[in-house]
Structure formats: C-alpha cells, structure tokens
C-alpha cells in the first residue's frame, strides 16, 4: 500500500514512521558555510593501473549488523514490484553535495571521482568493468511512461558546512535542517525533478542510528522543515566509529582477532571513504529508482521497503553468498576492487538487483 492510499489525517504520522525506519541496513555551534561549483574537467591521474591482478573470492565473517534483507542469488520469488511512482529519468541527474564537518581535499576528490565515473562511458577513461557499467543495471528501471533512470549524472554544486551548524550529533530531522540551510542560503537551487541532495558527514559526526542500525539512508525532505519535497540521501564516514560495520569488508569485527581471514585492503587506501563509496552507490541506486518511496521496492509495507540495493547487500561478484563476497580483483599491491572509474580510480561496489535477470548483477560477473 502506498502512502497516498492513507487518509490525510494519518499522513504526517505515517511519513514520520517511514522516515525513521528507512535506510541502508547493516545496523550547538555557529552556522558557517562555504560553497563551490563543481566542474567535470579532468586532471592528471592520481592512481596507476596495475598490469598484474588476480581474481579471488574471500570468505569473511559476517559484519555485526543484521543483513536480513540480503537475498543471495536469483529467484522468481523476489516480488520486486513497481508502485507507479516516479524514477529519476530526466537527464542529467544533478547531485548537490553537502560536506558536513571537516573533510580532506583528497577525500572530497575521491568521492567526486566516483560520482563522475557513473557517466564516464569511454572505456579508455574507465576500462571495463566500470562504474558506468555498474550503473547500467540501475538504468534498467523505468517509470509508468517507460522512461528509464538516467545514465547521466553530474555534480551540480557543493556546499561545505565547516563549523557543524547543527552540532556534531545529528538526528534524521536535523539532517533535513542541514539541507534546508543549503537551499535557503541560495547556493543550491530547488531541483524537484532532477536533483539529489547528498549530505556526507565527517568521521567525527554521529547520526541517529548510525553504526547501530544504518550506514546511510535516503528519503525526501518535509516541506515543513525545508519548504520543499526534495529527494536526498545521507552517508557517514565510519572510519573511526564503526569501520567493521559500515566499511566492511575493509574492516572486520574485532572478535575475529588474529584468527580467520583478515580485512581486505581498500582500493584507495582510505578505509572510511572506500567503505562510504559502496554505501553511497547503494543509496544512489535506490534513490534513483525509488525517490519518493512509491516506485520500485519489494513487499507491501512502504514503512519497510526492500529496495534494489537491499536485495544484494554484501555481494560483490560471482559466487557470492554463504559468507563469500564473490569474485573480486586484487592488484599487485593487495588492493581489492571490482570496478574501474575515471582517472585510474578503482572501487569496490556491491551488486544491484536486475529486473531483467531477476538476480543480483554487476559488470564484473564471471558468467
């Protein structure tokens, strides 16, 4: 049942319930801001592609947060249905980045390189398997007119909240207030149709349910808080708070200690940010295919939808499941990845549920 089917008197309560439960499951200061406008110009590569690599399928201990939504493998029994709502089909998808807290320039560049890799279709710039090929699965989802999720993604603007305008402990509601600051102070336009407002919190910021129940979430803003209904997502840097939960498999639970397999080496040598990127990919895929929580999801309960990323959580390659993450690549320096991006970047991204294959799919599939 969609939100629209409820009586108007119950709508505010239902929206709040959905809002408080919706996310990627695993688990006061002065207002000072800076703004910049992003470009898509390229700069020299910061990472050299290795000529020697090997495929492997490591078996790792489960992360500490529940993965009850994960579906390992393909099935006609997964009832992923379209609920008649919009998808982000207009090109390009404009991402408005909000950097909350203190971020190193190298970390910002790494995340932006990932986002811009979604539209980097030139195989000379991003060899196969690529981020753009990974997003191709997301673009298979359509709205009621038959329009597909756009394959064009740009970083349309950036906003830096350097002094933690709402403190270093955010709630789900105060996350929306941070977005409201960015919209009301005019660095960002009100982009109902093509915009995604992506708020990223630094490793010293706690967020409601972070590490305990979620690593990221997406929803839409409440007009009462922001003035508009805008699709948004939040993802936090777990590098110091819970890497074994939200940066898995680049960190593993402490109880594994010296026994069993070790954590995988992140492709860009930053456990927190490399872990964030897979969560960002998860949330963007779901936001593009279900921006108002009334489009593509499994189940009949909109307060707890199972979306296209949830169905493949923890799977990164062929042969995944039963504790195995799937076939991924390890370069000569030991760094683990499964897709290539622009400027020589490499990333480890979870697979996405394909409506065509009715299975989890990724560009690094071996079969």
Automatic annotation (TrEMBL):
Pfam families linked to this entry: Phi_1 (PF04674)
Entry keyword annotation includes DNA-binding: no
Presence of the UniProt keyword Electron transport in the record: no
Provenance organism: Trema orientale (Charcoal tree)
InterPro entries, sorted: EXORDIUM-like
GO CC list: apoplast
Entry superkingdom: Eukaryota
Full protein name: Phosphate-induced protein
Broad class of the protein's primary localization: secreted
Protein family membership: Belongs to the EXORDIUM family.
Keywords: Apoplast, Secreted, Signal
Signal peptide: 1-28
Compartments it resides in: Secreted, Extracellular space, Apoplast
């Amino acid at each position: 049942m969609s939100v629209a089917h409820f009586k108007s008197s119950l709508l505010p309560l239902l929206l709040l319930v959905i809002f408080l439960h919706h996310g990627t499951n695993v688990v006061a200061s002065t207002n000072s801001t800076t703004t910049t406008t992003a470009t898509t110009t390229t700069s020299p590569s910061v990472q050299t592609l290795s000529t020697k690599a090997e495929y492997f399928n490591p078996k790792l201990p489960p992360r500490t947060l529940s993965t009850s939504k994960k579906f390992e493998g393909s099935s006609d029994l997964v009832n992923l249905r379209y609920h008649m709502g919009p998808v982000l089909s207009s090109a390009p998808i404009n991402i408005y980045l909000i950097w909350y807290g203190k971020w190193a320039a190298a970390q910002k560049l790494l995340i932006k390189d990932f986002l811009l890799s979604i539209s980097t279709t030139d195989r000379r710039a991003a060899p196969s398997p690529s981020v753009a090929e990974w997003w191709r699965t997301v673009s298979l989802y359509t709205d009621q007119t038959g329009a597909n999720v756009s394959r064009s993604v740009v970083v349309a603007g950036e906003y830096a909240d350097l002094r933690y305008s709402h403190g270093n402990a955010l709630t789900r509601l105060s996350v929306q207030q941070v977005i409201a600051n960015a919209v009301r102070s005019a660095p960002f336009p009100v982009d109902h149709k093509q915009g995604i407002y992506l708020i990223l919190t630094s490793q010293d910021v706690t967020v409601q349910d972070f590490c305990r129940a979620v690593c990221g979430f997406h929803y839409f803003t409440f007009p009462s808080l922001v003035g508009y209904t805008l699709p948004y997502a939040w993802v936090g840097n777990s590098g110091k708070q819970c890497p074994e939960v939200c940066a898995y498999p680049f960190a593993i639970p402490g109880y594994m200690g010296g026994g069993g397999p070790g954590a995988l080496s992140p492709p860009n040598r930053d456990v927190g940010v490399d872990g964030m990127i897979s969560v960002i990919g998860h949330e963007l895929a779901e936001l593009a295919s279900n921006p108002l929580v009334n489009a593509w999801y499994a189940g009949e309960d909109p307060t707890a939808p199972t979306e296209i990323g949830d169905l493949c959580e923890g799977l990164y390659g062929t042969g995944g499941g039963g504790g195995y993450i799937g076939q991924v690549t390890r370069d000569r320096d030991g760094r683990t990845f499964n897709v290539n991006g622009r400027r020589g970047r490499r990333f480890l991204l979870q697979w996405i549920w394909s409506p065509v294959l009715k299975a989890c799919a990724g560009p690094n599939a071996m079969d």
